[in-house]
Amino acid sequence: MESELKDLNSEPSNTQQPDPTREDASSKDDRPLLKSDSSSADNIQELEKKFAAYVRNDVYGTMGCGKLPLKEKILLGIALITLLPLRIVLGITIVVVYYLICRICTLFSPPNQKEEQEGYAHLGGWRRAVIVRSGRFLSRSLLFLVGFYWINETHKDSANTQENSKTEGTNQSDEQERPGATVSNHLSYLDILYQMSSSFPSFVAKRSVAKIPLIGLISKCLGCVFVQRESKSSDFKGVAGVVTDRVREAHQNESAPMMMLFPEGTTTNGDYLLSFKTGAFLARAPVVPVILRYPYQRFSPAWDTISGVRHVVFLLCQFVNHMEVTWLPVYYPSQQEKDDPKLYANNVRRLMASEGNLILSDIGLAEKRIYHAALNGNNSLPCVLHQKDD
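RESULT FIELD:
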């Protein structure tokens, strides 16, 4: 996902890399890890224990390549010739319609260019109203189109949360402050569509997204923060700096769009909550925690160990998909949390895990890459896996 790119700068420096000797060894023995022999099965079981947050547990199995029962094959075959083409055509139509709306609303309006960012989130009046309202409606329409006919939303107040004591110490004036960001666990690209339909916030996206036909203009109208990790210019603030400024601006200015951040930095299977990056908490502004779940019986909409194309095809072939969303009350940081972003991030994470019955896991994007590479047949990476335990 695009949100993963934001966190590459903040990956721990002590993450171990495969040395050249192991790379040489792997070039001599490039047999795939997914084999039928007992040693390979043991390797896969070991990987699944260590990287449980990324293990796919639905009918379609690891990487979406599992052996399907006859009933599922029949249902999939029917959907491939009926639902899939219909949903693709209608989905493209919705995207084109929204692009045209954005194009009309941005005519004769130059984009706001600030700190190597470019967007139209600064637009006001009828232009901004049309972009936001049509964007929310069409995003929900896309979700409906792919099978999310209803979304179960729960809004909790501070009296109903299990750890409400952290907001009780703030005074009344603090509790009137506008939050600067929404933070959520990350399962799929579908998370973005839901957030667009709900509050139409700004996201973090790879800079190349701004150049994609249709999607580029839409992302600029969202006010996305575009990431260019390769930039070497001395005036480039970096992702964390730009995000912090945007969160602070949203906190102080009611007309500014809120930031939507996924502090885990990557997607999981939905049962776990990874360690949080501190980018969403550096501005010391209140945040709104959101917990997403995708209950399933056949195919899991979570994007974990499955390729993007395969995931989209299988998702569009599901007759019905389900989503559950829990909105927690605004989290107002204490002075101690404001002074320590890591403490702030950890406390919000523990609250979300408690309220969402999620399992805390300390692995991250680096481990996900190891797991994916191992599943794809890179035999050198399990050696790194063993070294991480030492």
